[in-house]
Hints:
By secondary structure, the protein is mostly helical. It contains four helices and no strands. It has a single domain, classed as de novo design (two linked rop proteins), CATH 1.20.1440.
Amino acid sequence: MNTIELKNRTKHFGLRIINLVNHLPNTQVANVLGNQLLRSGTSVGANYRSACRAKSSKDFINKLKTVEEESDECLFWLELLEEANILKPIQLAELKKEANELTAIFVSSINSAKRNLND
Length: 119
């Protein structure tokens, strides 16, 4: 997957998170979890774009680590929404799958960048 495709994929992920949060029930718990999910979900794409403009390989790796953390954090908030019975598993399955895939992509990218740095 090239940089442009991944930029688009992370932006689309953020838009899907926005849509999900907009449809959460208006309860105190859903609002708190939704706000956390909204922050981490939209920051995946923003931080990936920042990583693409890194000034060095080390800077790139550090910025990608932030992207990895944010995508994994999204999964945590999605799991809480499910396990707190705020949303049904079927409503979250695709977003959880995407959060897992994005996290795996960024872990792999970090590992590749580290290997290339050490070569």
